[in-house]
Task: structure prediction
Amino acid sequence: SLLGLVWFPALVLHIGGIHSIANLEIDNLFKDYADDFSDGLGCYVDTPISFIVDCSAVSIRMKPPRVPFAICPKLDKKLDKLINQRILEPVDFAKWEMPIVKAL
Result:
């Protein structure tokens, strides 16, 4: 090298391994972006978003996917958890139909 290892302390340079992590930099990131690293999930609260949909598009109702009876309780528990976390939102529809809009 041009400078040699003697100059590293004077220039505040440190040699680290390939898999080393500088905790100071990570701590600073957590402090600077504390809102982004919060424990809960965030929600979009800015201006409303709208999608332009072709008026001639026709929605198609399809049969719901069949779920084996053995995993129904686990699925219900997981869905309830996602609803409580406000990731999913319950929608009113008949048990025998599932509103899926398929783009053709």
Notes: The mean pLDDT is 77. Residues 72-84 form the longest helix (13 residues). The radius of gyration is 26 Å.
